[in-house]
């Protein structure tokens, strides 16, 4: 068995920030999960639907791995990424890092992992790997998935090689800080403004605050969008609240990030943005609850109410980002 010593196997709420936390703590940089999420400008929104999809998807963050790229670039961290179509090379890339005493991040499809009870394909899942033996790989996943877990090397290879939406070609990555540790506090305002700019200037109508407004118009008709509303609507609500989002479709994480920032920066606009995202987080949880009730009861009135709240959310998040952009 080969295990990287001194790994803190702390499973947090979101997969990518959990993996980043493991890698960065090993390098001596210990940041909270909301801080990792915020410095990586992770918040976004997308309403995603197409004829090929069984049911629409509400996404609350940037694309998989974009958060990691943002964080590394902002803090001056050396991000080494390796991808390959060769299963042998893919394993060698990972084993070499573990043998050298360094944990490694992996992007893969969670469907194949032994510890996942919910068998749904998601190619944007991220874990940290810190050891292996002849049969198993030792991983850190979210707290919801068990934190310190193991999966067979066979299942890991399948998860890494899976092709489909959001997948990567056996992607593995390591992070190395510069010789002089970054003063991350200096990067809070640039990260907030970058996130606000991207949210407000989304190029298509189903992203950012315009995407939330589109959802406000589409969600009331969701009972007619599926033949299995009793399955699909509660599943959508579950994905919003508990599937690694930290609650409220990532708005709780961003609220907490802004709250930490208010303790470091004395700024009225920042406090306003924090207050507005506190309101938004509560309202997103209300939306998820209403969607779940609609699926269980078949009553479209719940979805109509959710649409009204989503309309308000589009305005509130637009106002919050407009204020935060002025920092």
UniProtKB/TrEMBL annotation:
Coiled coil: none annotated. Residues 155-324 form the DUF4872 domain. It comes from the Bacteria. It holds the Pfam family BtrH_N. Residues 14-142 form the Butirosin biosynthesis protein H N-terminal domain. InterPro entries: BtrH_N, DUF4872. This is Lantibiotic ABC transporter. It comes from Streptosporangium becharense.
């Amino acid at each position: 068995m080969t295990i990287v010593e001194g790994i803190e196997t702390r499973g947090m709420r979101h997969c990518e920030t959990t993996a980043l936390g493991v890698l960065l703590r090993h390098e001596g940089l210990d940041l909270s999960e909301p801080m990792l999420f915020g410095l990586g400008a992770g918040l976004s929104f997308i309403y995603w639907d197409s004829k090929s999809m069984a049911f629409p998807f509400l996404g609350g963050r940037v694309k998989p791995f974009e958060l990691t790229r943002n964080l590394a670039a902002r803090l001056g961290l050396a991000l080494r990424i390796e991808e390959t179509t060769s299963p042998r090379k893919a394993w060698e890339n990972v084993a070499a890092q573990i043998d050298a005493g360094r944990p490694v991040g992996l992007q893969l499809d969670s469907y194949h992992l032994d510890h996942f009870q919910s068998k749904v394909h998601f190619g944007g899942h991220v874990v940290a790997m810190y050891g292996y033996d002849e049969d198993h790989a030792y991983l850190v996943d979210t707290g919801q998935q068990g934190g310190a877990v193991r999966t067979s090397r066979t299942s890991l290879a399948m998860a890494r090689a899976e092709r489909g939406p959001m997948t990567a070609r056996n992607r593995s990555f390591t992070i190395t800080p510069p010789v002089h540790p970054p003063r991350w506090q200096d990067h809070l305002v640039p990260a907030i403004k970058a996130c606000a700019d991207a949210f407000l200037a989304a190029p298509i109508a189903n992203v950012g605050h315009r995407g939330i407004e589109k959802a406000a118009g589409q969600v009331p008709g969701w009972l007619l969008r599926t033949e299995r509303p009793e399955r699909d609507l509660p599943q959508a609500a579950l994905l919003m609240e508990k599937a690694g989002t930290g609650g409220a479709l990532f708005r709780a994480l961003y609220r907490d990030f802004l709250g930490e920032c208010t303790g470091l920066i004395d700024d009225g606009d920042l406090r306003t943005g924090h207050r507005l995202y506190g309101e938004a987080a509560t309202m997103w949880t209300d939306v998820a609850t209403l969607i779940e009730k609609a699926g269980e009861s078949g009553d479209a009135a719940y979805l109509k109410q959710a649409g009204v709240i989503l309309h308000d959310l589009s305005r509130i998040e637009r106002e919050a980002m407009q204020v935060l952009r002025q920092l």
